[in-house]
Amino acid sequence: MDFFKYASIASLFTLSSWVPLLLGGLCFTIVFIFEAIALFTIATQNGYKNKWMAFIPFLNTYYIGVCAQKNRFYNFNTKTIGLIAAIFEAVLVGLYIFTLVAGNLVEPYLYKTDDNYLAIYLVDYDLLPANLGWAAWVYENMQKYILNILNMVFMILKTILLICFFQTYACRRYVLFAITSILFPVMGILFFIVRNNQAVNYKDFIRAEQARQYQQYQQFRQQDFNNNPYNQNPYSRNPYDNSQGKDGSDPFDGLGNNTDSDPFDDFDKK
Question: What are phi and psi of 72, to 5 degrees?
């Protein structure tokens, strides 16, 4: 599907009909080679079978699910998601080619009309031969309805597949990598970047990360407690108990005499 993205981008810079296809095919081939090498490397490191699928179009979409099988989308296995996505991709490519052929057949019988400053090409049925009626129907309906619906379903499946894949090999940035792969045709290059990363289960990674953060929190908390000059219990001694000084003696020892005589003896003397 990235081929059509490259072709669409190339069509913005040329009026020719074959140059976008040529440039789109060239760019697709380069990025596809990066993707195939990345999937093959990942399969080798993790011991996955049928590594040759990484180099076959459509089958390599299924193989993305094979390489991402350490993670699941809810209760769905990524291999199953990859298989469904590969089938949708193959059907879409076939329908795109079929629509392109139909468009070329009816192109001589199109006329241009403007709708809110947007050029729209419609089929002139008065000039269209009867044997090209099917081509006119395909040209008018396939791009508007069928291809858009199927492409939306495929993009949902591909997004789920990429999320699981990057959760496995780029868990810290899986959202960024997945969105970038959907919006721009650079999926193969991102695969190549993460090809040597260790495969992990995202839930296990989250649990390990939470345990690590909690351990750091406990360490910092203990360190702050040890460095706090007020970490002693302020109520270990009653602050209102003045019966004893700091050395354990009576703080009023210096007042009065220390004899055992009656303090009123002086009043009895005459």
Answer: -130, 155
